[in-house]
Write a structure and sequence with these properties.
- By secondary structure, this protein is of the alpha+beta class.
- Helix 3 crosses helix 4.
- A hairpin with a 2-residue loop joins strand 3 and strand 4.
- The chain contains eleven helices and eight strands.
- It folds into two domains: 73 residues, Winged helix-like DNA-binding domain superfamily/Winged helix DNA-binding domain (Arc Repressor Mutant, subunit A); 171 residues, Beta-Lactamase, CATH 3.30.450.40.
- It has a six-stranded antiparallel beta sheet with strand order 5-4-3-8-7-6. A two-stranded antiparallel sheet has the order 1-2.
- The protein is 46% helix and 17% strand.
- Keywords: DNA-binding, Transcription, Transcription regulation.
- It comes from Lichenicola cladoniae.
- This is IclR family transcriptional regulator.
- One of its GO terms (molecular function) is DNA-binding transcription factor activity.
């Protein structure tokens, strides 16, 4: 959402323009007035009033080096949101312990439309730090986290997600077709874990596994990412087992479940039959 035309159908278009401004500044810290106006496609006077209002509310601020950045009020709200997120709160001790044991950067993420979004990040080895941040988004087709989040989707929902993907070529190994992605997802379901082998960024490998709720539905995933040297071929099986164990531990802690992640969730009809026995 970054053009006026995209928010005109909202019940409160002005709020949509405010969100579009926040997204523009978040993606390009230091973006100036002209850049904001171009990204939003708004008249100069309207852009000026919007920026002034957002600054007064503390949602954006002028940067000392020029342009605009996110305001402290947003970080305050983000902190409150994090504290109220049961999944993130309960998963963090397990994620921290896991990152310490595998000495890799680890993430907790969820699905939003056709993107994987990081909810939490924990650094492992201090000598090699993988660049990432909370709130970062990736297309599901080129991230291990994303593949874990969609692999066990009901077929009709999976079709919708795959149809919405742009399949942009980020790296030479990035999967570039729906057919190719479906083959990868079949492997994910068979193994119980997903991999990103330099599909998102150079010299980076990532292994991810899903977190399930009481009904066996995938509602989040965790991942461990490192350099090719850190995540070498001979480490795959052991690391994958550790990722799945940590994901299962979070499922047990948050949702009191330890479902076999290689099996699809039960359908509503199946659940009804079980209740009737």
């Amino acid at each position: 959402m970054n053009k006026v035309g995209e928010v005109s159908n909202l019940k409160v278009p002005a709020l949509g323009r405010g969100v579009a401004l926040l997204e523009a500044v978040a993606r390009e810290p230091g973006l100036g007035f002209t850049g904001i106006q171009e990204r939003l496609g708004m008249p100069k006077s309207s852009t000026h009033h919007l920026i002034s209002t957002m600054c007064e509310l503390g949602l954006i601020k002028r940067r000392s080096l020029g342009g605009y950045g996110l305001g402290l009020r947003l970080f305050e709200l983000a902190g409150i949101a994090n504290e109220s997120n049961d999944l993130q709160r309960d998963a963090m001790p397990i994620l921290r312990d896991f990152a310490k044991r595998v000495q890799l950067t680890c993430h907790l993420g969820v699905l939003e439309q056709n993107e994987a979004v990081y909810l939490a990040r924990v650094e492992g080895a201090r000598d090699i730090i993988v660049k990432s941040h909370v709130g970062q988004r990736f297309p599901v087709n080129c991230s291990a986290l994303g593949k874990s989040l969609i692999a066990w989707m009901p077929p009709e929902l999976l079709d919708i997600v795959i149809a919405s993907l742009a399949f942009e070529k980020r790296m030479p190994k990035t999967v570039m077709s729906a057919a190719g992605l479906r083959l990868q997802l079949a492997d994910v379901r068979r193994r119980g874990w997903a991999i990103d082998d330099e599909e998102q960024a150079p010299n980076c490998r990532c292994i991810a596994a899903p977190i399930r709720d009481r009904d066996g539905m995938v509602i989040a995933a965790i991942s461990a990412v490192g350099t090719l040297e850190q995540v070498e071929d001979k480490r795959f099986d052991a690391l994958a087992a550790q990722v799945m164990a940590a994901a299962n531990a979070i499922s047990e802690s948050v949702y009191c479940t330890s479902a076999d992640i290689t099996k699809p969730p039960k359908s509503r009809a199946a659940k009804s039959r079980e209740k009737g026995r």
